[in-house]
Amino acid sequence: MKREDGTRRRPSLSLPILRTSRSQHRAGTLTVGNLLTELGETSFGWAIVVFSLLTLLPLPPGSSLITALPLLVTTGQMALGYPHVKLPGRLARLRLDQSKLRRTVLGLRPVTRRLERVLTPRYALLFARRNDRVLGLALFVIAFALFLPVPLSGWFPAISLFVFGVGLVERDGLVAAIGLIFGGASVLLTAGILTSLAAGAEAMI
Fold it and tell me: What is the DSSP string of the chain?
């Protein structure tokens, strides 16, 4: 598809997830493992994108204690030097709610539209194999901040991981680095909130 100025429009980031989840939902095969296999086999990029989306689903408060676990597994494997994601059987067979997933993906359109305008393969050295463990460790720390049930802080690391995952899928080192920077800020925010809560609890005692 081309724009009015004749340049080719970049494919939407949302379409692969929406199309794949819809077709698998109709076939009754929509699970985490099947979705990742169809999207990009077992690449860390797509796993981080999909699992960060799961943490943004409309779920009760405190659900991050469960939804962040796949991100901890994925980033932990990356930090340990795994060549690709190895999902535990129970996680791979986890069924997804297609309507909630669709609402979440569409709700992120303001973010994905901005990313689509700037995404291009660049700074590929960031994704060199020798950097996998360091990146994995940094992402694991961000995922741990997401895992903690801290009020008002969960969406920040989730969006940061989503942005990094998109950068990794598209081999855009600049976008991935932005995700890491926002992720670092989210860790500091979570630490600040925890410190404030601890100080408040101590004062009450």
Answer: -B-TTSPBPPPPSHHHHHHHHHHHHHHT--BHHHHHHHHHTT-HHHHHHHHHHHHTSS--TTTHHHHTHHHHHHHHHHHTT-SS----HHHHT-B--HHHHHHHHHHTHHHHHHHHHH---B-GGGG-GGGHHHHHHHHHHHHHHHHS--TTTTHHHHHHHHHHHHHHHTTBHHHHHHHHHHHHHHHHHHHHHHHHHHHHHHHH-
Q: Is the pLDDT of residue 4 over 50?
A: no
The total number of structural domains in the chain stands at: 1
pLDDT category, 42, cuts 50, 70, 90? low
Residue 78, amino acid:
M
Q: Give the integer Cα–Cα distance in Å for 106 and 196.
A: 34
Torsion of CA 150, 154, 160, 161, to 10 degrees: 100
Question: pLDDT, tens digit, for every residue of 143-182?
Answer: 998 888 776 666 889 899 999 999 998 899 999 999 999 9
- Would residue 6 count as lying in a domain? no
123: left (phi over 0), alpha (psi -120 to 50) or beta: left
* Residue at 1 is within a domain: no
Q: What is the mean pLDDT of residues 61-85?
A: 84
Query: By residue range, what is the domain housing residue 153?
Result: 14-204
**Considering the domain boundaries, does residue 164 fall inside one?**
yes
